[in-house]
C-alpha cells in the first residue's frame, strides 16, 4: 500500500510565487514597466529569462538571490505536513511538479531541510551562467492546448506513473495538492479512487467548481484545504484505512 503525493510549489508549499519573490532583489524592489508588460500568456519562462537578465545586468549575484529566496514563507501548516510525510516515507512517494525552477526550489527545500521528503522534482531547469546570470529553460515540449507552452503537468504525471510501473511500483491512490489553473489538466487525468486537493479560494478550486456546475465534474474526489494541517488530517485518515 503506497500513496503518491503530487505537490505544486508556488502558493502551495510556499505561500508566495517564487518567481515574483525574486523581484525583491531588483533595484527599488521593482521591475521597469517595459519589462513587466512584456509577459505574454503561456510564455512565463521566457518572461522570467528576461527578469533574470535584468537582475544580472544590475549586478545581483547568486548569494544575494539565495538569501532572498530562503526568506520566502511556507504556507500555514506546511512545515508540520512535510515533517509528517518525512516520518512516513514508507507509505508516501512524494513529487513536486512546478512552473518555478530547479534553482529556487532546491535552495528553499535545502535551507529548510525538506529536500529528502521529495523523491523527484519536475520543474524548469535553471543554472547560473559563467558570467553569473541565472538562466532558465522550458521543462519540455508538449502538444496540450490547455497548458502553458513550457509545461503540461498531466504529461509529467503520466510519464512518471509509466516509469514507476516499469519499476513495478503502482499506487493505491494519488493525492494531487495544488492551487493554480495549470493544475487542472493533471487533476482531470486522475481516476475515481484518487483525490484532488485544491487550495481554498484559488484558481484550481474555482475551475473544479465550474466543471461541476457545467455537469462535467472531475472523476476523482475533491477535498479543499486552507491550511496544510487539513492535508495532514486527510493523509492520516488514508493511512488508517
TrEMBL record:
Its cofactor is Mg(2+). Mg(2+) binds at residues 8, 10, 179. SUPFAM superfamilies: HAD-like (SSF56784). Keywords: Hydrolase, Magnesium, Metal-binding. InterPro entries: HAD-like_sf (IPR036412), HAD_hydro_PyrdxlP_Pase-like (IPR006384), HAD_sf (IPR023214), Pase_PHOSPHO-typ (IPR016965). Substrate binds at residues 19, 99. The active site is at 8 (nucleophile), 10 (proton donor). GO terms for molecular function: metal ion binding; phosphatase activity. PANTHER family: PHOSPHATASE, ORPHAN 1, 2, PYRIDOXAL PHOSPHATE PHOSPHATASE PHOSPHO2. Belongs to the HAD-like hydrolase superfamily. PHOSPHO family. This is PHOP2 phosphatase. It comes from Aramus guarauna.
Amino acid at each position: 500500500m503506497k500513496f503518491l503525493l503530487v505537490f505544486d510549489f508556488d502558493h502551495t508549499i510556499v505561500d508566495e510565487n517564487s518567481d515574483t519573490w525574486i523581484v525583491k532583489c531588483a533595484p527599488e524592489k521593482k521591475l521597469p514597466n517595459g519589462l513587466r508588460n512584456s509577459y505574454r500568456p503561456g510564455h512565463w519562462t521566457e518572461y522570467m529569462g528576461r527578469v533574470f537578465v535584468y537582475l544580472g545586468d544590475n549586478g545581483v549575484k547568486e548569494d544575494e538571490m539565495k538569501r532572498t529566496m530562503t526568506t520566502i514563507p511556507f504556507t500555514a501548516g506546511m512545515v508540520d505536513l512535510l515533517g509528517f510525510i518525512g516520518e512516513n516515507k514508507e507509505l508516501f512517494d512524494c513529487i513536486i511538479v512546478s512552473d518555478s525552477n530547479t534553482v529556487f526550489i532546491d535552495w528553499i527545500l535545502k535551507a529548510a531541510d525538506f529536500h529528502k521528503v521529495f523523491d523527484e522534482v519536475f520543474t524548469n531547469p535553471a543554472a547560473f551562467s559563467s558570467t553569473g546570470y541565472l538562466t532558465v529553460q522550458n521543462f519540455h515540449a508538449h502538444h496540450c492546448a490547455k497548458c502553458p507552452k513550457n509545461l503540461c503537468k498531466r504529461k509529467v504525471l503520466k510519464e512518471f506513473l509509466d516509469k514507476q510501473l516499469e519499476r513495478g511500483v503502482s499506487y493505491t491512490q494519488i493525492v494531487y495538492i495544488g492551487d493554480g489553473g495549470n493544475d487542472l489538466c493533471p487533476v482531470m487525468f486522475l481516476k475515481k479512487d484518487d483525490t484532488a486537493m485544491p487550495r481554498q479560494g484559488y484558481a484550481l478550486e474555482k475551475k473544479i467548481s465550474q466543471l461541476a456546475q457545467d455537469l462535467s465534474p472531475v472523476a476523482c474526489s475533491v477535498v479543499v484545504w486552507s491550511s496544510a494541517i487539513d492535508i495532514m488530517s486527510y493523509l492520516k485518515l488514508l493511512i488508517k484505512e
